[in-house]
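Let's sit down with a protein and look at its sequence and fold side by side. Go ahead whenever you are ready, and we will take it from there.
>
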Amino acid sequence: MPLTDTDCELAPLFYPLLVNLAQRDKTLTFGEFLTSAQAAHPNNVVLGRAVPLNVARRLEVVRQFTRPRGYPDISCLVVNARTREPGEAWDGNYELERERIRSFAWESIEEEFYLEVERQQRNSRPLVRRNREDAKQLMNAYHKANRLVYGPEIIKRRDALIDLLMKGVDVEDVFEIVAHDLRRGD
């Protein structure tokens, strides 16, 4: 399921609350969790408009971070009020996952989580195409500012850089993609 800007905006607000639940070995219902988040961030307009029904979807950002890395799925600490189990999107052994959550050092991955949310946010935005001249100017300015990182070799792939920039891909991502291709010998 593609993530939205709202998903990515709320995830960094939810994460510390999830870590707090893990540290206290507690669960909250979707409604209780949302109320707790809203109390912690009373001035956040997006969070103020949120409804418990959408909390499970908003926790998908957390799941997309933890699962591929083999980390426990901390999002399962937010449960259905009736069943006291995670929402329908959750598909694991609940008791085993709770044990993994209790013994995991959540603070050790906090920075990694926030960086991933930033990356997901960039990827969730629609691409805005650029004309060739704007793409060239952006490429030149970025390369000049990052010359020591990428060196002169990357400019040999000038056409690839410009093509990706014209498609609207973020300049940092463009340089990383082309640098990766260079390292592989493509």
